[in-house]
Every structure is written in C-alpha cells, then in structure tokens.
Amino acid sequence: MVTAKDDTKTKNLPWVEKYRPSTLDDLISHEDIIKTITRFINEEQLPHLLFYGPPGTGKTTTILACARKLYPKGQFNSMVMELNASDDRGIGVVRGQILNFASTRTIFNKGYKLIILDEADAMTNDAQNALRRIIEKYTDNVRFCMICNYLGKIIPALQSRCTRFRFGPLDPKQIQPRLEYVIEQEKVKVTEGGKKALMELGSGDMRKVLNILQGTATAFPEVNEDNVYTCVGHPTPTDMSNVINWLLNSDFTTAYNMILELQITKGLALPDIIQEVHSYIHRIELPPEVLIELLIKMAEIEERLTHGTMERIQLSALVGAFYLARSKIKLPEKE
C-alpha cells in the first residue's frame, strides 16, 4: 500500500498528489495493462503508447510509474519530457521543443528518451500531423506516450503508430481499499453513508473521490451522506425522490414552484437534477414510446442548457415534458 511521503513539503499537498502511487506495484487497477507494460519494459521492447479513457482512472499515474522504473532518479529529468494541456502544444512546439528533445541523444545515458503528451486530444490536427513524422523518424531515440480522454480526437495516423490501452472507470471494490487507507492516514471521521455517497459521486474516478473526500473533511467535522452532497452542490437521494414525486404527481404550477424552491434553497444546478432524473426514470415502469419521447426532450433541454439558456425556462420545459408524458399514460393527478 502507498504511504504518504514523510516530508514537510507533502503536508499541504492535495490528497490526490499526496497519495499518488509512485511505482507500478502500487497501482490498484487495470492489472492486465500493468502486466503487459511491465513485460514490455523488462524485455526492452517498449512501443509507442496511447492511453485513453475517462479522467481519474490512472493513465498519467501509470506512465509516470513506468518512467520511474525505466530511469533512475538522476536520469529522470534529462530523459523524460512531459507536456500537458497547460502547455502550448501547437505545431510550433512540435517542430521546436519536441523535435529538439527527440532528435538529440544524451552523452552519459543509454537507451531511449520518453515524451509524455498528456491530454493529447487537445492538440490541433496540424500539430498531430507534424508529430506523425517525428514519431517515425526518431523511433530509435525516443518513445512517445499519448494520453487522452477521447480516442476519436486523435488522428488515425497517430493511432496506428501506437499500442492502445483503454483505462475504464474503476470498480468501487478497487477504490474502497485506497479510500479506507487515506481516511485512516488523515484521521477523517467518515460514516458508511458518506463512503457510499463518495462512490456514487465519483463514478469510477479515483481523483474525484479523493477530492470530494478532502473538500468535505475540510468543510465539515464528519463526512456523512448529506455533507458530501452539500459540499459538491449535488442533489441528495432524498431531494431526487421529492423531485420525481412532484414531476409525476403534482400539477404543473406546484411541481415548477417546488423544484425552483429546492434549487434556490440548496443551490442546485438544473443539469445536475436532469442527470439524476435520467437515472431515476429508467427504474420507473413507463410505456416504451413515452419513455423514448421523455428522454429525447430531456436531451434537448440539457443541450439548450449547455448553450447558456435560462434555467427557469428550461425547468418549465422539464416539468411540461413530464406533464405531457403523464397525460399519455393517464397517471392520477394529486392536488
């Protein structure tokens, strides 16, 4: 199990960085990927790599652990170049900084260099095309590892030159031991309901789980279900039960006013409510044609919200969509 470094510098670090695994053995998931990459390294046959998948699933941590295994501490800075979304990675950087690093050899260090391009899906097509030729030309001297969330944003020419690994969302059973360890190390008071809420909101994202845990532990004396949801401004299961009840049973005006009051009182965003409503209605027995129409209308509302429309108007549309759905299945109306 990973231990936090006993250095005063780590005292004020975010827990995500403080407890980030530093070796391949410390990683908690994707065992098949770890075994494959370890074999590549041991046999000195490391190809160009492309890691893709949702955030917080260990992509960056894995390649940094690989780099530490490949290079002793003294060689790390001279043999590894890491660029992420905060750096300019247009065609100028590819032809300048990356090309210079890839084309030069170090006098005292043997083997190949490693270039890590984090969030490579943010690179322009021109930069990706320029990178294609560098990868081909300097394979003897350098290995590339590209990391992205969306594989479709990487041009096929780069995909074909790399060995691809997909990092899926982490299973709660994989997150649980690391979460328990951080709770123990930081001496945080956490209830079982709080742990369950962290897992629900994390959705397989280890980084998100630890960030929410740290935020809640800092803001409240106890990490319980209500405090976790309050800290992130997300509707609680109780709130959502009330919202669904109003949408399915109350008249238009009552449902609209009650949901609006809940939003104002608890500072809830309509997109978060729609996201939770979506998961709830799949558990309700509705005629297929009604469910399909309801889902399409909710998708349109969410799209309009992303374009910056007024939440109150879209809330009216949401209540109206459910009111029309009820009229088609003739649900009883309560005053």
Automatic annotation (TrEMBL):
Residues 45-173 form the AAA+ ATPase domain. It comes from the Eukaryota. One of its GO terms (molecular function) is ATP binding. SUPFAM superfamilies: P-loop containing nucleoside triphosphate hydrolases, post-AAA+ oligomerization domain-like. One of its GO terms (cellular component) is DNA replication factor C complex. InterPro entries: AAA+_ATPase, ATPase_AAA_core, DNA_pol3_clamp-load_cplx_C, DNA_Rep/Repair_Clamp_Loader, P-loop_NTPase, Rep_factorC_C, RFC_lid. One of its GO terms (biological process) is DNA repair. Keywords: ATP-binding, DNA replication, Nucleotide-binding, Nucleus. Its main location: nucleus. It is found in: Nucleus. It holds the Pfam family Rep_fac_C. Belongs to the activator 1 small subunits family. This is Activator 1 subunit 5. The lineage of its organism: Eukaryota, Metazoa, Ecdysozoa, Arthropoda, Hexapoda.
